[in-house]
């Protein structure tokens, strides 16, 4: 369950977010990989194959038309590999059935699933025999930097007719900004399928029992902290071993809400003053006050995210910053009446620039490698984005997809999904997201720095200097390809 | 004559040639390949990586995190063998010759039970050991902190054993030692059983105490076993990936528990296979040197019985 979360946490936690307990499964399979790799590739004489890039036969398709936008061969099989994490794989199997219905066949899309995306598929990339669709997620996902030029652009998917939406195109039925994380140099290379709302979370039942109200400003947060302390509870909890970066996400999110999207521009463009901006400093100072007031559950620096979250769902700490996967991730040990609820990040000052804004991002990247049946791969994605399949997915996994209007008001009975959807619907025009930390692979260092800060071992100015140092180092390195935000 | 020659040739072919061919194909060639890839900018997904000479190695020289990781590995490679072997020897001595000083040389009462029980941790897979100790060290409700506060150290009740830069590596070493002590104890017990009892009886008659017997009789006589243990534990210290991946997933507080294998793996996840493999090659060389060093230094000290 943590696997998928970690991957989807990347925006907050960076690559390190994935490194937690998930390596367990990596280790379990090292043996298999060690045996499998030489068999798969060793026969070619060397692991990289020495340039045998030929040998892939692309399926001959039909002419493109409105009903067959990618010109697929309706009888051809589509090879789909799904990351089986917290979302399972049933939603993808069901999307395969939708494909069958659309093309009046059976078993056309063969959906297989694994947690070892990279381990299993790396040899297939080297051997130029990748599957037609990959859900590139989880702890063992493929580094996109390594395969960026080996995947199809999905620009034509956006222009294709959406299924179940009377004449609309796929691009018209997606949540605004849904394609941003998967767009590289103006081309859509990854179709991110799930939509995550990042926010603070609380247990509504616990608040009700104790007579607490959900805070909307940082002052209220601090007052809540004092009230909690009086009842021997903590305000926050953090998993410093691998997920202290969730508080980095919270800080940046509060800063952007306070100062507007311009705050992000400097951070994204690695400006030397990125972290010295007033709203960012305000956010850091606010968190420092909570640290100094000892509102954090003691011992966070020695916990991993699941241990910290266990304390949260057991009611030992009132608030926890995370993405909307949290409910799913902790569902097995969350008390039935916990009523996990999403709370917009608090305003730092009197009049935040973004009144309804929130940090929202599409995650769980699906890619269509240049392989045997790329047209079929795109057609599979089109079916997965159909009204029927997307609704079914949200119902199955209690998470929103990037397809608009497929989650009912009651969130299929989940308070978390319902409250996150409410924040999402209210603030879509002011939603924001960033990717410099993941794009430049700063996640691991961010975890280490924030772990020290949240343990009380660092001042705000040290935190600023160290985080800025990460950005400066990337900026000064000419070998790293940069992106810019206008 | 010819027939016998043929027999000899086929004998060599089957018993030497075939294993050699398999060995070359499955062991030697991947090693050579790995070395070659360390000289390239291979992302991990291309069929034709570009050759960049020693660039990866030059970059390693300036990579602070790599040196931090190598230093931590060095600490593990020294501390793990010393602590594990001293403890294992002490236990082995207790259950074999550490018993009553009257009558026949024997272990302490209940030695059989101790021998079996102390072997238990070794039967647990490394992953499970890691998860187990992660819970033991948990700052909230962990076994260790619970124990400490129960015996009166209330101020230690929330100690983040794995989250404190000064404690993390030590805490992890304890977990690793715990899991291996029993195994090496059994190894040493077997070796000690091979020493003629007369030697112990003679030393006892000469008035040697148990410590002196252990240091001056047992250790020199089972030196081969100890050397083997040193090599294995040192190699484990140079790897330690499994334990670190669980107990210090991002390298621990301030990278105080980051090890080379872990840093290497994180480079796989960012499509820097060439760079990661260069680290692997360096680590392999270090491992080789350490093993040779231990074995060569031990050769001079062999005792003839």
Topology (elements, then pairings):
The complex is a heterodimer of chains A (about 475) and B (about 300).
Chain A (H helix, E strand, L loop, with lengths): L1 H12 L9 H6 L1 H12 L36 E6 L6 H14 L5 E6 L2 H10 L6 E3 L8 H4 L7 H5 L23 E2 L2 E2 L2 E13 H7 L7 H13 L3 E3 L8 H15 L2 H7 L9 H15 L12 H9 L3 E6 L3 H5 L9 E4 L15 E9 L6 H11 L2 H11 L17 H13 L8 H4 L3 H12 L5 H17 L10
Chain B lengths: L1 H36 L17 H7 L2 H33 L14 H13 L2 H11 L6 H8 L17 H26 L3 H9 L4 H12 L1 H17 L1 H7 L12 H9 L4 H27 L6
Helix pairs in contact in B: 3-4, 3-7, 3-10, 4-7, 5-7, 5-11, 10-13, 12-13
How would you characterize the overall build of this protein?
- The complex is a heterodimer of chains A (486) and B (305).
- With 486 residues, chain A is α/β, with parallel strands linked by helices.
- Chain A has two domains: 2-23 and 66-196 and 361-430, Periplasmic binding protein-like II (D-Maltodextrin-Binding Protein, domain 2); 198-357 and 438-476, D-Maltodextrin-Binding Protein, domain 2 (3-Layer(aba) Sandwich), CATH 3.40.190.10.
- Chain A is built from 20 helices and ten strands.
- In chain A, strands 1, 2, 3, 6, 7, 8, 9 and 10 form an eight-stranded mixed beta sheet that branches. A two-stranded antiparallel sheet of chain A has the order 4-5.
- In chain A, helix 4 (90-103) links the parallel strand 1 (78-83) and strand 2.
- Chain A is globular and about 70 Å long.
- The two termini of chain A are 37 Å apart.
- The model of chain A is unreliable at 1-46 and 49-55 (pLDDT under 50).
- Chain B is mainly alpha-helical and 305 residues long.
- Chain B has a single domain, classed as MetI-like fold.
- Chain B has 13 helices and no strands.
- Chain B has helices at 2-37, 55-61, 64-96, 111-123, 126-136, 143-150, 168-193, 197-205, 210-221, 223-239, 241-247, 260-268, 273-299.
- Chain B starts with a helix and ends in a 6-residue tail after the last helix.
- The chains are: A alpha/beta (486), B mainly alpha (305).
- Chains A and B meet through helix 2, helix 5, helix 6 and helix 19 of A and helix 1, helix 5, helix 11 and helix 12 of B.
């Amino acid at each position: 369950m943590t696997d998928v979360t970690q991957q989807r946490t990347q925006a907050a936690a960076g690559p390190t977010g994935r490194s937690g307990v998930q390596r367990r499964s990596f280790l379990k399979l090292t043996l298999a990989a060690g045996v499998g790799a030489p068999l798969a590739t060793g026969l070619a004489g060397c692991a990289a194959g020495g340039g045998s890039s030929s040998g892939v036969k692309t399926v001959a398709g039909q002419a493109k038309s409105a009903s067959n936008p990618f010109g697929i061969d309706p009888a051809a099989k589509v090879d789909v590999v799904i990351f089986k994490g917290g979302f399972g794989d049933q939603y993808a199997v069901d999307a395969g059935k939708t494909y069958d219905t659309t093309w009046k066949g059976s078993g056309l899309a063969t959906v297989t699933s694994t947690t070892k995306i990279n381990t299993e598929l790396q040899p297939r990339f080297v051997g130029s025999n990748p599957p037609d669709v990959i859900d590139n997620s989880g702890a063992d996902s493929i580094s996109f930097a390594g395969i960026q030029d080996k995947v199809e652009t999905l620009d034509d998917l956006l222009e294709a007719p959406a299924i179940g939406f009377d004449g609309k195109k796929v691009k018209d039925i997606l949540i605004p900004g849904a394609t941003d994380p998967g767009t590289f140099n103006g081309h859509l290379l990854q179709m991110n399928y799930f939509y995550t709302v990042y926010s603070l979370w609380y247990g509504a039942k616990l608040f009700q029992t104790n007579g607490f109200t959900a805070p909307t400003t940082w002052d209220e947060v601090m007052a809540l902290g004092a009230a909690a302390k009086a009842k021997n509870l903590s305000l926050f909890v953090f998993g410093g071993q691998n997920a202290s970066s969730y508080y980095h996400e919270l800080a940046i999110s509060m800063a952007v809400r306070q100062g507007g999207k311009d705050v992000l521009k400097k951070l994204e463009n690695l400006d030397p003053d990125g972290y010295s901006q007033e709203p960012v400093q305000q956010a850091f100072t606010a968190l420092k006050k909570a640290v100094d007031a000892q509102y954090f559950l003691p011992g966070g620096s020695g916990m991993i995210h699941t241990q910290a979250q266990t304390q949260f769902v057991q009611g030992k700490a009132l608030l926890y910053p995370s993405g909307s996967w949290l409910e799913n991730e902790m569902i097995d040990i969350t008390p039935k009446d916990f009523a996990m609820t999403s709370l917009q990040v608090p305003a730092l000052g009197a009049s935040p620039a973004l009144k309804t804004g929130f940090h929202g991002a599409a995650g769980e990247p699906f890619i269509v490698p240049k392989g045997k049946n790329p047209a079929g791969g795109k057609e599979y994605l089109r079916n997965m984005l159909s009204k029927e399949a997307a609704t079914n997915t949200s119902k199955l996994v209690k998470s929103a997809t990037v397809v608009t209007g497929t989650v009912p008001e009651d969130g299929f009975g989940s308070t978390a999904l319902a409250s996150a959807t409410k924040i999402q619907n209210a603030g879509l025009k002011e939603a924001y997201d960033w990717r410099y930390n993941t794009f430049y692979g700063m996640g691991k260092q961010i975890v280490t720095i924030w772990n020290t800060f949240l343990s009380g071992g660092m001042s705000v100015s040290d935190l600023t200097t160290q985080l800025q140092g990460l950005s400066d180092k990337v900026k000064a390195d000419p070998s790293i390809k940069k992106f810019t935000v206008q | 004559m010819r027939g016998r020659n043929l027999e000899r040739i086929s004998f060599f072919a089957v018993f030497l040639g075939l294993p050699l061919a398999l060995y070359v194909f499955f062991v030697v060639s991947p090693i050579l390949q790995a070395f070659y890839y360390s000289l390239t900018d291979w992302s991990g997904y291309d069929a034709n990586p570009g050759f960049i000479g020693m660039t990866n190695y030059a970059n390693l020289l300036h990579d602070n995190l790599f040196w931090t990781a190598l230093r931590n590995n060095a600490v593990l490679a020294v501390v793990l063998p010393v602590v594990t072997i001293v403890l294992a020897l002490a236990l082995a001595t207790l259950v074999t010759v550490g018993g009553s000083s009257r009558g026949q040389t024997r272990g302490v009462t209940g030695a059989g039970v101790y021998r079996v029980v102390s072997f238990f941790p070794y039967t647990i897979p490394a992953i499970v050991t890691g998860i187990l100790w992660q819970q033991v060290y948990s700052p909230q409700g962990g076994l260790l902190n619970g124990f400490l506060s129960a015996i009166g150290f209330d101020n230690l009740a929330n100690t983040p054993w794995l989250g404190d830069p000064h404690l993390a590596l030590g805490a992890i070493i304890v977990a690793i030692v715990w899991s291996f002590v029993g195994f090496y104890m059994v190894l040493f017990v077997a070796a000690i059983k091979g020493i003629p009892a007369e030697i112990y009886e003679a030393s006892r008659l000469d008035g040697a105490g148990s410590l002196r017997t252990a240091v001056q009789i047992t250790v020199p006589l089972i030196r081969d076993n100890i050397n083997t243990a040193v090599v294995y534990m040192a190699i484990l210290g140079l790897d330690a990936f499994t334990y670190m991946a669980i107990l210090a997933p991002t390298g621990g507080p301030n990278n105080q528990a980051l090890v080379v294998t872990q840093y290497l793996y994180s480079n796989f996840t960012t499509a820097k296979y060439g760079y990661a493999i260069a680290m692997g090659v360096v680590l392999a060389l270090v491992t080789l040197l350490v093993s040779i060093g231990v074995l060569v230094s031990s050769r001079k000290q062999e005792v003839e019985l």
